[in-house]
């Protein structure tokens, strides 16, 4: 019995690693997939959308979380850019809430977030089946 259990766990891990969300797709949970330069992304996470993001998280290796003063963003107005190693912006979009999930290919990527004149930048390497959790926390404007 333990061999069967191990096998089933291995199958489950392979499916999760491959990004298969066991039949749950973005449209089924009410999220709109957007695409720029061959890269898919979803954005939002306000209210009940947060649960939908947890259901599709395995499909997106990069999870960008946005906050102001440590509090998750509750509005739009933050610009997200995903730049390749040459500095070309392959994704340039407005975040629709505190979450921005994107699925670029493996490589070195620069992630920029700009809000209210504040700009933050992080460069990360995405390799293999690794997931990146990137946070941008902005200073509240008075």
State the helical fraction: 10-25%
Number of helices in the DSSP assignment: 2
Give the overall form: globular
Total strand count, please? 10
Topology:
Elements: H1 2-17, E1 34-36, E2 39-44, H2 49-56, E3 62-68, E4 71-72, E5 78-83, E6 89-95, E7 99-102, E8 107-115, E9 118-126, E10 132-138
Structure characterization notes:
- It is globular and about 40 Å long.
- With 142 residues, the chain is of the alpha+beta class.
- Residues 7-23 have low confidence and may be disordered.
- The chain has 2 helices and 10 strands.
- It has helices at residues 2-17, 49-56, and strands spanning 34-36, 39-44, 62-68, 71-72, 78-83, 89-95, 99-102, 107-115, 118-126, 132-138.
- Strand 8 (107-115) and strand 9 form a beta hairpin.
- Helices cover 17% and strands 42% of the residues.
